[in-house]
Amino acid sequence: MRKERKRGAGRNKFILSVLALSMIAFGLWFSGTNAASFMKGYMLFKTDQAAQAEVGEKTPPSTETVSLTKETADTEGDAVLYPVRPEKGENIGSLVIPKIDATLPIYHGTDEDELVKGVGHFADSVLPGENDNSVLSGHRDTVFRELGEVGKGDLLIVETSAGTFTYKVRKTRIVDADDRTVIVPKPKAVLTVSTCYPFDFIGYAPERFILIADLVSKE
């Protein structure tokens, strides 16, 4: 009886060993074939890339088949609007606000040197009329002391060397002084106007009053 148990245990160990070796062998075979397939695909991909690059070098792209991306088209259109980019401190035009009967000079830059003279154009934003977010700022106690009277539906007109651009206020916001969302890129031509808030606050104001306006016409 004891011998039969030992014989049975030995048989089970043998079967388990065979199964284990079979699974290991299958795993090695499967991995090898996958690796081979991957390497084959990779080599075909690289070969195709090299062939396309060689054809591209020999054959210039046809003007009939080349399509510009939106970014490229916008950039080229913008270059037509302003073939020469302004220098810091340069007067780039005027901001007209019919609601408060104001015509204000715009200077490129938002340092105190520009803001003391008029409205400052945030230099890292696009110029008025261009696609994206053009940002203007001004002091609440000088050029923008009546800006709080301007609201949704009112017009903001920017006159520059590139033309006259009319924007319509879509909404107003009051944000913290360090809120950077007002300068984020936009998918279309937008004018963002910012000043300190509250208007009657004494000292450094903790918030900003924001006008967000969409371009509705250009001449």
Automatic annotation (TrEMBL):
Keywords: Hydrolase. CDD domains: Sortase_D_1. It comes from Metaplanococcus flavidus. The keyword Hydrolase applies. This is Class D sortase. The keyword Hydrolase applies. It comes from the Bacteria. NCBIfam families: class_D_sortase, sortase_fam. Gene3D superfamilies: Sortase. Transmembrane segments: none annotated.
